[in-house]
Amino acid sequence: MSQNSSSDDAGERITPVAHQPPQSVVAEPTAASPERPFFWVAVSLIVLLLCLVILWLPSQLNQRESAVTAAAGGQGSAQSSAEQTPEESPDTAPSARVSEADAEAVLAKRQTAQRIADALQLRRAELEKLSVERWAPADYQQIEVNAERAVNYFENREFEAAATYWGKALEQANTLLGQVEAVLKTAIIDGYQALEKLNSEEAVKAFDLALAIHPENPLAQTGMRRAKNLPQILTLLSAAENHERSDQLDQAMMLYREVLKLDPQSPVAREGVVRVGEAMQDWEFRITLSTAQQALADGDLDAAEREFRKADKLKPNDAVVKEGLAEVRAERLQRRIAALKAKAEQAEAKENWSVAVSAYKTVTELDGTLGFAQSGLARSQTRLELDQRLQILVEQPQRLYSQEVLASAWYTLQDAKKIDKPGLRLQSQMDAVDAAIARARQPVTVQLNSDSSTDVVVYKVGEMGMFDQKTLRLTPGDYTVVGRREGYRDVRTTLSVRPDVGAVSLDIRCTEKI
């Protein structure tokens, strides 16, 4: 009740009027006095006032208290302490002021209790919204008990006791509100643990509690969906496991993936997908490896290498795959070496020494430990050099007209003749060079004509002196002839002597005077 109510109550108090009889009546109380009727009038007024105080004023106070809330109960007035009988004298004013102060204290206690009750009502509304009766029924029941006690005390105008019990209930409500987050977290954890144990009933129960506390919680919403799908998931998982045990891996994988569509977080389905995937990969690996090994045994190196590399992608760094690829490489190497060896030998047989050298050299680069390649390379290089020297002489026999070249050609020919079982090419080269050397050594008749005044010198042959005519026998080649005469300019000419052309004539004389 507000202070205005208190003011209204105070305003409605009936203050008794003090009556003082006239002095004449007091001094001379005789029955025959003419003023005696006034005495009875005063007495009647006093009686009337007393009736008003006793009968009418309490009913007015009860009507005002009926406006207080039902939980708080009616508040009695403090009117009795302020009432005064008509017989009270003005000396009772201090007592009236004390009664008014008591009424204000009572009103303050009532207002305090009412404030606590209002706060409790808000907390109880919050707790009921959080479905407190589902997760703390006993504690919430205690709050209701304390609140009911407070209401009883309030209705009996024991406001201080009412405030105490409402305060206890409020403290208990605040404690429960502080436990909400922990209760929510525990419910969610219990739900997910039940999911891991594939217990649909317990999971639904836990997530239902979590959603009752926090309907928008994403973890609880997700968990509830998973929990409701769990019976169907269990059926699919059972079928998938049966297919897996029967090595029907494709069907098992399909069912595990179907489970993941219903519950992307299902650990059993995830593990199943990984396990079946590995099994399928292992099966494919074994098939691929077997195919590769069979291809290697059949000598199909391209197919073998292709399958081994496919197997390597399925299971990287597998020892068997590495060994298989090594065998393929080794077989390829052996085949290439064999092919190069055959090529070199064929080139040797055909006296195609440049091809033989290239083939043997490639073999030594592939495997430098092979003796046939080393000896073949040395042999082919020697024959190649000989072939090149002889071929030059065959193609350019005029080079033999130089004595140095002629001498070198003779030694080259001797080297060629040392070869056992020469081939057709070598024999042809030797015959051609031998004939060219013979022609280069065959002397040719040379006729020199002069004027007997010119001193003639033939380089590489000697001084011819002065003559009119001289005949020489010279081997094929180019000779420088110089003529000198006192008072004349020297003459110089080249004498080319070639085989198979008959006699050669040269006129040499100095004719230009200085």
UniProtKB/TrEMBL annotation:
Residues covered by region (Disordered): 1-30, 72-101
Protein keywords: Coiled coil, Membrane, TPR repeat, Transmembrane, Transmembrane helix
Regions crossing the membrane: 38-57
Mapped TPR repeat ranges: 233-266
InterPro entries per record: TPR-like_helical_dom_sf (IPR011990), TPR_rpt (IPR019734)
Record has Coiled coil as a keyword: yes
Name this protein carries in UniProt: Tetratricopeptide (TPR) repeat protein
Coiled coil: 323-350
Signal peptide: none
